[in-house]
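Translate sequence into structure tokens.
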Amino acid sequence: MIYSFNRPANLFRAGYSYIRSSVTGNAGVKGMPVSVSTELTNNCNLKCPHCSSGSGRMLRKKGFMDIDLFKRVIDELGSGLYNVNLYFQGEPMLHPLFFSFIDSCVKTNSVVSTNGHYLSEANSERIVQSGLCKLIISLDGADQEIYSKYRVNGDVQRVIEGIRNISKAKEKFKSSLKIEVQCLVNRFNELQIPVIKALTRSVHAKLSLKSMQIISKDEISSWMPVNNRFRRYILKQGSFVLKSSMPDKCARLWFNPVITWDGKVVPCCFDKDAEYVMGDLYQETFAEIWNGPKYRIFRKSIMTGRHMIDMCRNCTSGLKGARY
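Result follows.
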């Protein structure tokens, strides 16, 4: 009963403070996050060229989140949370205590995004019985040649088999788990979308087609899809820029923070290398960080000059056509 009352009340406070801040320009915040993303690990089994972790561009240390830290955060935020994302950078299923994190989210919706290489029959059956709300599985090609253009060191047949394992397990146990197949559309795989759609339909999953974030500007032209619908960038005055008006506002700073594996709180999922650390959960409570001076100053900076913040220049917030 307490949870059912606290969640809408917290959502109202967060939403009201965001709207008020957007109108007045005063970056005040009320309430706590309604969603939180947690990085179980930033280690990964793949070497995707435009992923901060897989490409080797990530400067921060690799590691695994302490389950006790996670439980402490969930205990503090839980009554106001609608959703917990059990992923950020890296492959979450590499964590030795992966299922313990799901077990700790029994009072709120939990979501996992995976590259699909660890969805054995046993793991799939355990997932659908775990209480997980949604599983996102990346599939960026229909055959090995195209798939491995981006998912370097990956095995497309293993991923497809994993998707089918999850579908069979869901049917076997009459699970309510939502399955989403996600494809990063690029120049190499865009013609395979009909094949991926057919596979998705066959396993009764949802398909999400996302525009691809390209880290190196020098490589944008070689990866950008021919179909303008899936392009994140446009050519302007001889260089590629994000096709967004870059509004001076961002709801993520009022609703959905990210916690790295080592307890750092960062503003959003575009801060891949944790360059904008708002606080450390090993030194402060989440509430102290959320309402602290670093967050207040950063929210204000977003509302007065978002285009000047480096991580925002690849952000899909306010960008039409970035996700379907």
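Note: The chain is about 35% helix and 15% strand.
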